[in-house]
Amino acid sequence: MNGARIFSLLFILMLYPSAGLNAQKVEYIKAEDLERILAGSGDKLYVVNFWATWCGPCVKELPHFQKVAAAYDPSKVSFLLVSLDFPSQFESKLLPFLKKNKITLPVAAMTETDANLWIGRVDQSWQGDIPATLFFNNARKVRKFNAGALDENELRSIIDNLIRT
Amino acid sequence: MKKTASFLLISALVLSRVAMAGEPVKPGDFAPDFSLKSVKGETVSLSAGETKGYIVVFYSNVCPMAVKYEQRIVELNNEFAPKGYPVVAVNSNDKDVAPGDSYDEMKKLAKKKGYKFEYVYDETQEVARKYGATNTPHVYVLSRNDGQLKVEYAGAVDNNPDDAAKADKKYVADAVNALLSGKSVPVTNSKAVGCAIKWKKA
Hints:
A: Glutaredoxin; B: alpha+beta; two-stranded antiparallel sheet
């Protein structure tokens, strides 16, 4: 391989990080990182979905999030998938799942095993049942928590209602 | 006489809050009684028992989080049933949404695993609703005082689903041990990630 080809390959990888071997970059987070996420700044709507590869209804609703996210301006609506997979299965289950299902939305994997430390921060009413989704725009004091699975229309309509307020 | 009766009633309400319909029960509340069919085909009634209390676990055959805790639930029963706090596992999942949680599947699993604790079927989901259980596994530790069952603890088994050996807060065991030694329960509530209870489709 000559220098120019290596250079162009590097250039392509820079432009399209997903062309690399690790199709999906996962951020490993602790309870305090979740605090930072929930404090999300700027006038934008954050959609944070809590899920796991072992949760059937979660896996079923993920494509709706992928599809709906593509329809909004990322500077106005920002999506994050927080994986609550067992840390012992991050490598064996989570990463292969993301690759196989071509998940392109940002993924954060929760490494804090004591869920009692952070569940209540997401929403007081939440008992930790998944799937669950939190919608918020701190700049506009907008906040909505949804326990349970959402279909594509429900997800779209919640977002549309919240960005209008 | 009438006055005394209403005074007593009000005192009882103040001392031990009665959960309103649709509101989850909290530690300190009266525990809703139930009579449900077990995998052995018998009716299990909490109030008819003579134990010191119960470890009620909303459970599932198939929820991976419940499966993670299966051995720990077996051990809780082995340790505490002889001391008066047996496990009663309740399956409230709708069989149409979660076929793996049907009564037949419950019977098969209990037989295969040799469950010594009662495993009961909440077909109408009324018990899960009365308790306000949301996920599996979701535990309620109950104590019996003068025939009344009271909720002493609601939440997770411990604070590390992935690795029992690394759990440094054993909420349920700590609660029952405290009750057995006449002390107050150190932590009465905790939250944990679990599978949402599979409610019947409306």
